[in-house]
Design brief:
The chain contains 20 helices and 14 strands. Strands 1, 4, 5, 6, 7, 8, 9, 10, 11, 12, 13 and 14 form a 12-stranded mixed sheet that branches. Strands 2-3 form a two-stranded antiparallel sheet. The protein folds into 2 domains: 182 residues, Cathepsin B, Chain A; 176 residues, Alpha-Beta Complex (Cathepsin B, Chain A).
């Protein structure tokens, strides 16, 4: 027998037996049996909670929590409403920022050209957005080829490489470079309206090409060689996008029909006369480039619009930018001046009263009803339903990553009482089956709590705010709440 080994075992056993409390004790802060027993002992389901349990376990929570006083108080009227026609539908895609951008431009085209309706091609701009994001991603791979795989920036660029999300500056960059086309020139496809699988496959394609670039970089080749590999990868991306969205036109022929005049009529038994009248309203068939089309039919300098933000967690009166918040390599990141919410509403009122539709971004996941077309703070009274207080300020929501822009829409009306906004009219891009035939009523308290961004023409912004844009911005990291873009899917 090995007595030496036996002695060691006996000593170890004795040591283990002398330390039972240390080895078996629960870590401090654990949800242990003592605490669970105390919680159980102090709770008994009374009749009120049993009624709550029966209701909640059998019915949708939002139907139970919906504040009927708010629903029945909405009359649908606004003291000022911008003339706009048609409701767009982004379908199952995160292109709200793009649709909202087009919905700002669309009324001008309809009004000035005398059209019944008009819609831009979102598939056209979507094609170039994906193409530019692919280039931006591969450039980031080349830039960060030696980065630690756990680096936070590296993880984010790989997560968001070709996502649908965007900001207003994404719209302006794309329109400036590629122009626009009517929807008839490049219609929607299944992939443009249902982007999930297309994005997954495109992401797989880009990661495979990124891996090739990283492998080449590991062999010591220079940036010039890596960019040649990137160019080959972008050719694959272009082909992939053509198969999903169609090939974007370099030039196209287009004509339009002017709407009927007030007294213009055509008898049911006079088809020849009706056809002649319609032909008289038809414009000449002309050849356009996308850039020439934008200049002729829109012609708005989008760089004259500025981004104003209300982040309650940051000091106001300062210039900020979001790192990597762009879709085109070489363009400027999304940047803004942080202002008080009262200032933001005053500027927004000026824009609407000037008949300028306004792109804006919100946290759409809170207190809004697509069934009723309403946005109001505490529209769903969860506190009364569950009998528990849940106070949380706008600044606190940002701190706990529960408050940020995730959806873009357009403000097209306001209801003023004694010069102050009571509610706002919103044009959404979820089709006519949601909201009030595509529109929402946004109450002023909801504006305070859940509106973060407005894009307004410089003409409506006080000089002291415009001057702040001249300051060097404080750069917020790419992982700051909301920084990576807005892409709320209905």
């Amino acid at each position: 027998m090995n007595y030496h080994l036996l002695a060691i075992c006996i000593a170890l056993a004795a040591y283990m037996m002398s330390k039972p409390i240390e080895l078996l004790a629960s870590p401090e802060g654990e949800l242990d049996q003592r605490l669970l027993e105390e919680i159980r002992k102090n709770y008994r389901m009374d009749d009120v909670d049993r009624a709550r349990f029966n209701a909640v376990s059998n019915t949708d929570i939002n139907r139970l929590a919906l504040n009927r006083d708010i629903v029945r108080g909405e009359d649908g009227h606004f003291s000022h409403r911008i003339a706009a026609k048609g409701i767009s539908n982004q379908k199952a895609s995160g292109r709200c920022w793009m649709f909202a951008g087009f919905n700002v431009m669309r009324p001008k085209v309809i009004d000035e050209m005398g059209l019944e309706d008009f819609e831009f091609s979102s598939a056209y701009l979507q094609f170039w957005d994906k193409m530019e994001k692919a280039n931006l991603y591969l450039e980031a791979v080349i830039e960060m080829r030696d980065a630690d795989p756990l680096d936070r920036d590296w993880q984010l660029i790989n997560e968001w490489m070709v996502g649908d999300g965007g900001w207003w500056n994404f719209v302006t960059s794309l329109v400036k470079k590629y122009g626009t086309v009517p929807v008839s020139v490049m219609p929607e496809t299944h992939s443009s309206e249902n982007t999930r699988v297309m994005n997954i496959v495109l992401g797989r394609l880009l990661r495979s090409r990124a891996a090739m670039i990283i492998d080449s970089a590991g062999k010591g080749v220079g940036v010039e060689v890596l960019r040649k590999a990137k160019e080959k990868a972008l050719a694959d991306v272009y082909r992939f996008l053509c198969l999903n969205l169609g090939e974007p036109p370099v030039e196209f022929k287009w004509r339009y029909e002017i709407k009927k005049k007030g007294g213009e009529k055509g008898g049911q038994d006079d088809e020849e006369n009706k056809l002649k009248v319609a032909q008289d309203r038809l414009s000449e068939l002309r050849l356009y480039t996308p850039q020439a089309f934008y200049e002729e039919f829109v012609g708005v300098d989008l760089t004259e619009f500025v981004c104003l933000y209300n982040d309650a967690a940051k000091p106001t009166g300062k210039h900020y930018s979001f790192s990597r918040a762009r879709n085109i390599f070489g363009e400027r990141d999304m940047h803004f001046v942080n202002i008080e919410i009262g200032e933001m509403k005053e500027i927004a009122v000026k824009s609407v009263l000037a008949n300028q539709p306004m792109w804006f971004a919100v946290n759409m996941g809170v207190d809004q009803s697509g069934e009723h077309g309403l946005m109001e703070h505490e529209l769903f009274d969860y506190e009364a339903l569950f009998g528990v207080d849940m106070p949380l300020s706008k600044a606190q929501r940002t701190r706990f990553n529960a408050g940020a822009s995730n959806h873009a829409m357009v403000l097209t009306g306001v209801d003023l009482q004694n010069g102050k906004p009571r509610k706002w009219l919103v044009e959404n891009s979820w089709g006519t089956d949601k909201g009030n035939k595509g529109h929402w009523t946004l109450y002023d308290r909801w504006f305070d709590e859940h509106v973060y961004t407005v894009i307004v023409h410089r003409a409506h912004v006080p000089k002291e705010i415009l001057d702040i844009f001249e300051q060097a911005p404080e750069v917020l990291p790419a992982w700051y709440p909301g920084a990576m873009g807005i892409q709320y899917n209905p």
